[in-house]
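I hope you will forgive my troubling you with a question about protein structure. The record follows directly beneath this note:
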Amino acid sequence: MNDGRTRIETDSLGSLEIPADAYWGIHTARALENFPISKRPISVYKDLVKALAMVKQASARANREIGVLDPAKADLIDRAAQRVIDGEFHDQFVVGVIQGGAGTSTNMNANEVITNIALEMAGRDKGDYAFLSPIDDTNRSQSTNDVYPTAIKVGLGLDLLTLLEELDLLRKAFLDKAVEFHDVLKVGRTQLQDAVPMTLGQEFHGFATTLGEDHSRLKENAYLLCEVNMGATAIGTGITTHPDYSPAVLRHLREITGLDLELATDLVESTSDTGAFVSFSASLKRNAIKLSKICNDLRLLSSGPQAGLGEINLPARQAGSSIMPGKVNPVIPEVVNQVAFAVAGADLTVTMAVEGGQLQLNAFEPVIAHSVFQSITWMRRGMYTLRVNCVDGITANRKRLGAMVGSSVGVITALTPFIGYAAAAALAKTALLTGRNVADLVVEAGLMSREEVDKQLSPARLTGLETVTAPIPVVGEKPVSNEHVLASECGEERAADVPGVGSRSMRR
């Protein structure tokens, strides 16, 4: 807590009072004045802060190794950076996520915090930059234009690891439900209309599979984050940097981060190009949109509970209305839907920001970083709440599902190889008009025996788990005509009223 004491720091624009206990300095103070936009500090993205410290630590080690930084100073910077990596001082990373200057304020915030931590460790006062300088020492061999994009990529790489873990946990949660519901028959739907039978387990297995595919796509896109431009400095020419710095800092950064980083082959191109963020953001959007579709399905399947589909029951998480007693809403799928909408919007922001780059640098990397970090953070949290607060507690409404399958005319599709499409269509119309059971109608029409009907309408056959490709003989020497089948149930007049059944063409 600031006690009102201050220190004076000076830059090329003049001097400012800085809170005495602040680890940040004058460059950060100017950013706080200039960019009161988002009111969200960069510290909301913990892995970005860690990545900045990792870059500073790798640079200190490389600078010491190639002999351009005093070993004692390098050691202080190294140890100070490690404390940030370990989670300390994150509250000192206070500049807003949206800022002008292509990330300069973020880089200087990191330089100042790490320098002042190091000064304190050396028994010096904060702001004693004559002893250890944020620019000449902590930022040695660096520029915002290589530090900032590298830190974004490293931070996203770290974030991606946790996203993939949560995505896999969600996939397994749906897979567990697929096993639990493996024997629960239901009616599948296409275009929201009744189609053919399946199991609820197959439906949930499909959810698990699509999430598994996204896991693979995200991993494939991770390589886009591995190309960095350390040593490029201002525009990629490496001005002010020792020729041995790039390979040295890359080696140390790989060791510190555990990521399979590589140096860009063209540092000028790499410094100006931000296309990797477009592709990575797009892969996040793909995952978000597919997850949102799953949430749409969960909301539909649980709709009701009385006047909707009501096939599954989502866990009741909170009262759903201030006016309707007993109402419970699907709030968890709803919030994940909204995450997906935000991710889609963020992807458009990234696209426009990348397009807005000019000449040797893209000035809009701060909004790119904010958009992608927000997307990956919200996706991870959304997956967690979907798994823990929804999917794990889903139950099947077995009684309702059984009744719906029993009365569904869709099951007759399974009999078309044996009785023909025309007879099946006629029987389906009869079942719809009369409410009769399809199996009973087929047997009564003499088209198949009860034993064969039961066999073909078994859960295994209906859901494709067990298939038959060869037709079996129908009962009797002569199949009953479609017209007779329908007429026997509805009477001649009602059969004639059904389009295509009571017509002359059907009586030929």
Observations:
- Residues 407-507 form one domain.
- The chain has 20 helices and eight strands.
